[in-house]
Amino acid sequence: MRSGFIISISKTVGVGLIRDSNNQKIRFHIDDTKGVPTKGDLVNFEICFKNWCLVATDVIVSQPNK
User: Fold this and answer.
1) Region 2-63: CATH code
2) Which of 66, 50, 47 is nearest to 58 (CA)?
3) In the chain, what are the domain boundaries?
4) Could you report the per-residue pLDDT of 1-58, keeping only the tens digit for each?
């Protein structure tokens, strides 16, 4: 399992970006989250390829942003 921070999220569009520990930006879909992530939250996630793109799945908030 990988970890990173939510750097942006659009709840109207349903997508967001995570910056992981390798300083990579990885897109995720809100449908693949457990809980409601917000910008700055520390999250754990898996990665996979969907439609030829690397995306985060099973995104879990491990430490909410205060």
Assistant:
1) 2.40.50.140
2) 47
3) 2-63
4) 999 999 999 989 999 999 999 999 999 999 888 888 999 999 999 999 988 889 999 9
Q: What are phi and psi of 8, to 5 degrees?
A: -160, 155
First to last CA, the chain: 23
Q: What number of CA atoms fall less than 13 Å from residue 43's CA on the CB side?
A: 32
With the C-alpha atoms ordered 51, 15, 58, 20, is the resulting torsion angle positive or negative? positive
The rounded distance, in Å, linking the Cα atoms of 30 and 3 is 16
The separation between CA 16 and the C-alpha centre of its own chain, rounded to angstroms, equals: 6
| C-alpha distances out from residue 58 to 32, 47, 61, 66, Å | 5, 8, 10, 22
